Structures are given as C-alpha cells and as structure tokens.
Amino acid sequence: MNDEYGDSRPGGGPGEDEGAATGRKGPAVGRRVLLGTLALGAGGLAAAPYLQSGLEKFLGAASQVDPTGISNLLPNGGGFRFYNVAASVPTKTAATYRLAVGGLVERPRSYTLAELKALPQVRTDLDVQCVTGWRVPKVPFEGVRVSDLLDAAGVRAEGRALRFTCFDGTYSESLTLSQARRDDVLVALRMQGKPITKDHGGPVRLYVAPMYFYKSAKWLSGISVTDKVEPGYWEEYGYDVDGWVGRSNGRDDRPTV
Predict the structure, then answer these.
(1) Is 101 helix (H, G, I), strand (E, B) or coil?
(2) pTM of this prediction?
(3) Contacts of 80 by beta carbon, 8 Å cutoff, 6+ apart
(4) Neighbour tally for 9: CB within 10 Å
(5) What's the pLDDT at 88?
(6) 130 and 221 assigned to the same domain
(7) Where is this region: Disordered (predicted)?
(8) Domain enclosing residue 227, as ranges
(9) Which tens digits make up the pLDDT trace of 12-58?
C-alpha cells in the first residue's frame, strides 16, 4: 500500500480522505524538508482549534497543487488526510449541484441539493477506518438513506447492484443492492455537524459505514442501478469489491459497526 502518500499505481493504495491518491509525480524531497514539513503539521495540530481549521483549509487546497506529495503526509485538524484521483475537481454550489438516480429504475430523477435536504435525514456516529490503517473515531454523518432514493425510483426486477459516479470525472464505486439498502449507507450532506466541504467530497458524498472508507465515494453525482456489480476505481487496482472493515483486503481491523 502507499501509506496515503499519493501513489495511484497498482501496488499503491487509497488513502481515502479521504478516498484516493493523486498519482502525481514530483521532485525528490530532502530529509530536512520532510522533517520540517512534518514539524509544521504537528505544530498546527497542537495549536488552538481555530488554527486547526485554518490548517485543514490550507492542506485541502495545497494537496491540489503540491507536486511533492508532502502535503498528503499531514493529517488535518479532523484527523483525515486529503487525496484526489483526478488532477482537479470542479466546484459545485447549491445552484449547480445535481444527483442523478437512474439505470434500471421505473422513475429516474435528478435531485438538486435543496431537494436532497428536504428529504428525511438520518445521522450516524461511527468510526471511519481507512484501508491504509488510520482511523477516526465517532464521525457524525447526516444525510439521506440510499434505500429511500431507491424506493422513490422504483428498482426494476433485474436490478442487482449500484454504480456510483462522481463529478471529478474519475472516481467511481459499487455496491450490491442488498448492501446499498442498509440503514447505515447514506447519501451524506453533513459531516461533523457541518455541510460537507469540497475537500471532504462535498457538497454530497457517499457514506458506507461498515466498509473501508475508499467505498465512500467523494463528490457524488450519479447513482445507477445495474444488473451486476461493476468494480469501482480502487477495485480496478486490486482492492476488494466487498470492502468490509476487518473482513477484507487482508486486514483485521475492528469493525466500525
């Protein structure tokens, strides 16, 4: 695995938030620069909460343009790390965001952000576990159950799985229909009591509580019902399609649910 260092080649691995690696290559970095950068990050985490918030925003922006990958070594104030599978990610606002639900359904539909917010919301408070090893305890997520969107769309008899696509144009994920219908699988709109930021995959992301965080696709823009499972971005690199925490990818982490 890549230990969240930003290598998207086979043999590397997702350092999921968040969700994936950049695959960007850059110049070699000297030991002094590396240690200095890590010290800066440690100092920021030890500072007051308002400084941590600033560090989080800085690292999120820096990871988009950092050719060295050093910014990806630093956790932000919330304990997460920032990665992207695309070179850049467009910004979606309440006016421009859409979530398309289609495929093998009777009533395909496109939802605005306001329409998603108007639907019944549920909240979970569970640990987030990355397949590379780090864990963030008791992360609140709030949003709409995927099962509610499926019921509204009317899944056809031949529907067996879901394919999730993202507005970065690269990231994708998949679940079986029975997995997606769990009560702890959400189209998430809020995280840690706030609207999900772009750096964390907002304004809308997938949240799959019982699975490693690479299954919780960022920048969600499409849900398509299919007749079979279509492996997502990280599965194409060899990661397990059924990414249960502690029961997949050769890991024995404590389950999150």
Answers:
(1) strand
(2) 0.75
(3) 17, 18, 128, 136, 200
(4) 11
(5) 79
(6) yes
(7) 1-25
(8) 98-237
(9) 456 455 443 333 333 333 444 433 444 444 444 444 444 444 544 54
